[in-house]
Design brief:
343 residues, mainly alpha, ABC transporter involved in vitamin B12 uptake, BtuC, two-stranded antiparallel sheet, 4 strands
Length: 343
Amino acid sequence: MTARVPLLGKLSETIILLLVMVAVFLLMWALNGSLFLQPRNFQSMAFQLPELGLLALAMMITMLTGGINLAIIASANLSGIVMAMILTQFITPETSGAVSGLIVALAISAGLLAGLATGLLNGLLIAVIEVSPILATLGTMTLIPGVNIVLTKGYVLSGLPDAVRFVGNGVILGIPVPLLIFLLCAALVALMLRRTPQGINMYMIGSNPTATHYAGVDNRKVLMKTYLLSGLLCGVAALVMISRFNSAKADYGESYLLMTILAAVLGGTDAYGGFGKVSGLVIALIILQLVSSGLNLLGISAFLTIAVWGGIIILVMGVNTLSSRHRIARRSVPQSPGQEEER
């Protein structure tokens, strides 16, 4: 019987999230009427969710290890700027199709490498030098935007080729391309977390790094790979962002940082590490997107929406903390022999 309890708990969390999603949908429908149900509204949400979703994945995997990556927005902007610089400087109206394709491939590769470089820097600071994740990524969060401004001189890099714009604005079989990219990345991350030694070790480190070390796991290597993957996901998010906006800038998506943490925590990721599922994150992202779209249709200020996100994350963290204390208190209460047999 004891083996079934964790599964039941996970199932209950998923069901609760789904019920919250349905409740939010009905509330936004009631507040906005038929305007909320228009196909173009859902299509707009399908285009907006992926970039936040990719960044939330990058945040979630670091939180699973008991860490955090405050530099995800800066990393994504650096990757986007590297891509845009190559694309705008080397592709001209006279450039042939084959050459343009090679330049696009080079630009995307360079942008992903830039994301990996930021992940490598964070990984070295956290895994090798053993700087606290929040301090290490706070430092890179401050460093990288300065580099971004130097590279762009504060200007917007715009005018990307059609092939790149298709990534952020195209549709395949009625499904937005950015959504397909996000779903593919989410599926791969979920597979990695559940079916590979790297994923299992990430959960173990988040639960008890000391015990994981004595179990023969190289904690440094696991953490290094985690932050490299986080940086790579930032690079993919950058591709979606610049292609959707048809431009790159040093300060795009600054409000996303709070939302990625909120999505991870709301989706069931433990802020202290060791627990969390991609499926919960995806449902949480849908909930947040429904709220954002509904408030936008009501004409509510974007600044007030950010305040709502802050209130939600405080509420969720408070509920999670109280729930954890309640579970610990229940476990510490001595049980009678009859209760033990029942368990």
